[in-house]
Amino acid sequence: MASNDAAKQQGYVPQLIILTVFWLGLQLVASWVKPGFDHIGQYISEINATDTPNAGVLGWVGFIPLAMIAFSFLVSIRSQLRVRSVSHVGWLLLFLWPFGYLASALAPCDAGCPIDGSSSQAIHNVVAVISYFGFALGTLLLALTPKTSWLVRVALVLLATVTVLGFLVMTSYPMFEIRGAIQRYVEVAQLIVFWLLLTLQQKESE
Fold first, then answer.
1. pLDDT digits (tens, 9 = 90+) for 151-163
2. pLDDT value at position 191?
3. Contact (CB, 8 A) for 189 and 162
């Protein structure tokens, strides 16, 4: 029975590895094909910013496939999760992370990702707020999943806090020069939430 639980848990690991590697690959590709792209000072969405080298293409071959991989993982693992009622809503809110990437492809930010800008930038800004805060709320609700260890619950609460505080810090003017680095730390925290879904799977005895 224990071996079945372990096998079931490991069944989703390849999807998570692909998701994580694709995210890392997207960062590397940006360094190679966008002259002067700065991971410390620029947001990830600026990989696809309008009027920049390879804009549009990177949205279609980078952001959209990444979103599809994340969507696929969330849908496929749902039947194995112990989430109920409130925690089920938490699982649903995790879809906002890939939705944010999808929106960054379809409604790209302007160069520099300003607060004010084009209509596409305005949509981008609204989606960013909804996706980060919604994802953080979803992570908090996942901590209420039945029969979850206190260690996982604490980790989920901490990751939700990192997501919210990270968003507030990276969008504040004093952190302008390192906003890209802060965002990438936040995104790593969000990817960890996806990995923690493995711990929320039902066991054979449940």
1. 999 999 999 999 9
2. 98
3. yes
Phi, psi of 11 (to 5 degrees): -60, -25
- Tens digit of pLDDT for each residue in 21-73? 999 999 999 888 888 899 999 999 999 999 888 888 889 999 999 999 999 99
Domain ranges of the chain: 2-200
Amino acid identity of residue 81, one-letter, is L
CA 96, 98, 104, 105 torsion-angle sign: negative
DSSP string, 66-122: HHHHHHHHHHHHGGGB---HHHHHHHHHTTHHHHHHHHHHHSPPPTT--SS--HHHH
Compute the C-alpha angle 183/193/92, nearest 5°. Answer: 100
> Can you give the pTM of this predicted structure?
0.92
How far apart CA 171 and CA 187 sit, in angstroms, is 14
